[in-house]
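Entry for the shared binder. Reason: the reviewer on the internal report wants the predicted structure included alongside the sequence.
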Amino acid sequence: MNESMYLYSLSYDESLPPLECQKDGTEKWFDCKKEEACNDGIEYRCVIDDDNPENMMCDFHLICRDTLTASIGSVFMALNLVSCYVWGQLGDIIGRTKTMAICCIIGIVGGITLFFSYTLA
């Protein structure tokens, strides 16, 4: 993975997009902050346009989640850093072909699991 992919994934993962809120019983949407959007009786949506692309915070409905759940992008990047070292060492010990097969199996299982997940809740 090259450096540009890391930089892209950081902005994709954890940037908080602009929000629009709607109170129960009204049809008008108004600009709001995270604190307003997470109150009872308020429905929110992410503003997606050229300046604010769709991201993981909206895709997995993490706007009103706790900080640990919302920082899943940082956890992913930290585990990515650790796994580079672990898989490199494992490749030296058991061989690169077996290590690559293990990585592919884990990637396929993870991809299938992610495909069927709608939210992190």
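Summary line for the report: Residues 15 and 57 are 7 Å apart (CA to CA).
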